[in-house]
Specification:
alpha/beta; 6-stranded parallel β-sheet; 7-stranded parallel β-sheet; Rossmann fold; 2 domains
Length: 398
């Protein structure tokens, strides 16, 4: 069974895709698909990207069955259509066809899916619907995947897509060499962030505030964050710290604080609807992660002009160059992180310069407006290829 323009679902059954040609770029109909919009880096990027696309007709499609806990749904531009299309285990086949019917009825030209399960369901539904352009963004290395997931990456998702964007080179390498995704489908395209009009004001506190923002999950290694603060206090540095966020690892981090007797030193205010205010309170931004793609919170900290200390994982060292926009240390090494922070504390002028360079780089390379424009161009290029009949990466074979 092969797809060349139409997808043959069964003998005698053909679903015709949308052949409507947009009169101009503004008329392109784009649907971005994700599981949910709980607070996280990938979800923040999803919202910012969709908000910054110039198309009049945009959909945010959610495949998770529930909207639990803190979320970002209300941060979507009101002009964006929101669609719940839950995919449930027991009815997944029917749910995928229902999603395909929605995409076909709306005449969607581009489906852009995010993260593994939404990639799987969204890309298959898009191909059933005959959507001309189907792409994904890969936000993490996904080391949790087993053989069956890698089989789906190679034989289903990759055969349904025209491009698979990766937010870091390490993610691209893993997709190619571990998951077996063809190299001609893969492309590195960075995350982006909104750029605040004014940077943060540094050197605000006699007792410097070291901050971080993100979900409290094992990959962020917040116990290392706590250990770094403990080491700084042991060295006689009168620092304070703040972890803004929530997640399943909160109890473990609070236990670490209790054991280190840092309950009065490190604040954990939970999720915040106003991270702008927190970034403006921080003197130094610390990323302690053991595993990353390209953290959106890191780009946010750069955009505020904060001096950054971060572990060398994922795309961090390519985003923040050591000694230029920030200081990089090995993952898992509290002493090395403390050394880097001490360098800022001992040389405030150097800290200010690193923050200024970080903001300039965020503006020039990681503005979400520029990233959105890049995606728009790729959508149009792939659509033009589809119209011309070039299906070299646009075929599905069983």
């Amino acid at each position: 069974m092969a797809r060349h323009g139409n997808l043959i679902l069964a003998p005698g059954q053909v679903v015709i895709g949308s052949l409507r040609k947009p009169a101009n770029t503004q008329d392109l109909r784009v649907a971005h698909i994700i599981g949910h919009l709980s607070v996280g880096g990938a979800e923040k990027h999803f919202v910012s990207l969709l908000n910054n696309l110039s198309f009049r007709n945009r959909w945010a499609v959610f495949t998770a069955a529930k909207r639990d806990g803190p979320h970002l749904y209300d941060q979507l531009d009101p002009a964006i259509n929101q669609k719940d299309a839950p995919i449930r285990k027991r009815t997944s086949i029917f749910d995928v066809f229902s999603l395909a019917r929605f995409l076909r009825q709306e005449g969607v030209d581009v489906v852009h899916a995010h993260m593994f399960w939404s990639n799987l369901y969204g890309c298959v539904a898009a191909r059933i619907a005959g959507v001309p352009v189907v792409v994904t963004t890969e936000h993490g290395e996904n080391k949790w995947k087993k053989a069956r997931h890698r089989w789906l990456e190679r034989n289903v998702i990759s055969r349904c897509t025209g491009r698979r964007f990766c937010v870091s080179g390490s993610i691209l390498e893993r997709r190619q060499h571990v998951d077996g995704v063809p190299s001609d489908l893969l492309e590195v395209t960075s995350n982006g962030t909104e750029i605040p009009e004014n940077p943060a004001t540094l050197a605000k506190h006699e007792s410097p505030l070291i901050g971080t923002v993100g979900r409290i999950v094992p990959q962020k290694d917040y116990p290392l964050f706590v250990a770094t603060i403990a080491e700084l206090r042991r060295r006689g540095r009168n620092v304070r710290a703040c972890i803004v966020g929530g997640g399943p690892g909160e109890k473990e981090v609070k236990d670490c604080l209790l054991e280190a007797k840092l309950n009065e030193v490190v604040r954990m205010p939970g999720m915040s609807d106003d991270v702008d205010a927190w970034y403006r309170q921080f003197d130094i931004y610390l990323v302690s992660s053991s595993e990353e793609g390209q953290p959106v919170s890191l780009l946010e900290a750069m955009s505020y002009g904060l001096p950054i200390v971060a572990t060398d994982v994922g795309a961090i060292a390519q985003t923040v160059r050591h000694g230029e926009e920030g200081l990089i240390a090995p993952p898992g090494d509290a002493n090395a992180l403390a050394d880097a922070i001490c360098r800022y504390l001992d040389d405030p002028e150097f800290a200010v310069k690193c923050g200024e360079r970080a903001r300039l780089r965020a503006i020039s390379e990681y503005s979400i407006a520029a990233i959105a424009a890049r995606y728009e161009q790729v959508y149009m290029d792939l659509l033009a290829r589809h119209r011309s009949g070039d299906t070299s990466t646009d075929s599905l074979e069983a």
